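Subject: two folds for Thursday's group meeting

Dear M.,

Sorry for the delay on this. The cluster queue was jammed most of the week, so I only got both jobs back this morning. I'm pasting them in the order they finished. Each block is the input sequence followed by the predicted C-alpha cells. Could you check whether the formatting survives your parser before we put anything on slides? The first protein is the one we discussed after the seminar.
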Amino acid sequence: RQINNRFTKQGYTTEIVLPPHDTALLARLQEISHAWLSRPGRDERRFMLGHYSASYMQQGPLMLLRDGEGTIQAFIIQIPSFDEHEANFDLLRHTDAALGNANDFLLLQFIGYLSEQGFERLNLGLCPLAGLEKRDEQDSVVDGALRFVYANGDRFYSFSGLQRFKAKYEPNWQSRYVAYRGGLRGFTRTVNALNRAMKL
C-alpha cells in the first residue's frame, strides 16, 4: 500500500498495450532495456529467460509504467503459458530516472491485472542457487563452490538480489535441478555448457 500510494501521488500510471506493438513504442522499450542491462550483474540469460528482441516483444501484452509527464519509465511483458491458470512474465525493467521500487509497483499492478483476467497464479521464475544454505547434507566440493558463487558472484549475476526481490511476494518455492555425472570434472563441463547456452 505504501508503494502504491507513493507512486500514485507522484502521478505514475500503468497501462496495458496489446500486440501488435508499434515501432516507436518498441524503440523506447529497447532504450530502457539497454540501460537496464548496462548495470553490473545484469545480462541476457537466453537459456533461462527470454531476451529483448522485436519479435519476442510481440508475443504478448505489455504493461507500461509512465511517470507524471507521461514518459515510459518501466515495462513488463506477459508471455504465453502452457497452464491456463498460471501467468508468466519476463523483462521487468526500468530506467534510472524512475522512482525507487518502480519494479515493485509495476509488478503489483501487473498482478492486479492478471487477477482481473482470471489467472490464479503468477510464475515468478527461477532464483539460481537459492536454497543452498538450507541443505542439511554434508558439503561436497561442488556445494562449497556453489555457496561461494552465490555469496560473492553478484558482480556477474545478482543471485541474492533476485532472491530478495521475489521473496517479498511470499512465493511457493519449488526446487529445480540440473543433473550431471562424472564428479567434479562432469560438474565443470556442465557449468561451462550452461554458460555457453546462456550466451547463444
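Second protein, same layout:
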Amino acid sequence: TLVSYLNKVVPWSVGRASHILADSEATKVDLIDLWAVPADKITVLLSGVDEVFRPVTDERRLRQVRARYGLGEAPYLLAVGTVQPRKNYQMLIRALRPVAANWPHNLVIAGGKGWLYDDILAEVEAQGLADRVIFTGFVDDGDLPALYTDATLSLMPSLYEGFGIPLLEAMACGVPIMAANVSSLPEVAGAAGLLLPPADEAAWSGAIHRLLLSRERRLEMVAAGFHQARTFTWRRAAR
C-alpha cells in the first residue's frame, strides 16, 4: 500500500538528505518529532499563491464555470481538495445538515476521487443531502478562480495538511475562509480565517450559520484575507 511504501521511503530520504525544505513550521515540527531530524537540518520554505488567483469580475465567465460543473443557480459553500478521509468531508457533510435546513446554500466539493470515496458518498445519503452536495470531480486550474470567486465561504476542515494552498487561493479570490485549527492551517490562515476544531461539527454548523447571517463580518474577513494572501508569494519563496 501507499502508506507502507511511504513509511519506508520517507525516513530513508530524510536521513540521506543533506538538508530538508519543509513547507510549514508544522511540517518542521513533525520531522523533528517523528524522525528526530536536527532542527538545523530543516529550512521552512512557505509556498506562494499564483497571480491568476484573484476575483473574477466577468459574469459570463462565472456562469460558464457554474454550467460546466453543474452548480445551478443556488449559492454555495466550497471545499477544494481530493475526496479522501484526511480532508474530513464526512464531518463537514454532517455539519451542513442544519445549515441546509435554514439556508439555500449547497456544498460544492471540488476534487478528484481519493481512497474511501464511497464512505463520503454514503454520508451524503445518510444525511439526506443528495440534492445539496455537489461533487465536481477534478477541476481544471483555469476554472478555479471563478469557482472560488462565486463561493460564499471556502471551507477546509482537514485533519492534517502539510500546507493548505486552497486557503491561499480562496483568500486571494476574495472569499472568507474557515479552516481546522490543526497542523499547518493556522499558519496559512493567520488572523484572516475562522479556525475551528476539526471534530466539532456543531461548532462548524454554528459558525457557518453566523457568517451567512453577517455580510459585514464576511467583508471584514475578505479584506483580512487579501492582506494575508499578499504575504505568500512565489517571488518571496524564491528569494
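Two things I noticed about the second structure. The beta strands are 20-22, 42-44, 76-80, 106-110, 133-137, 153-156, 177-180, 194-196. The first strand starts at residue 20 and ends at 22.

Cheers,
T.
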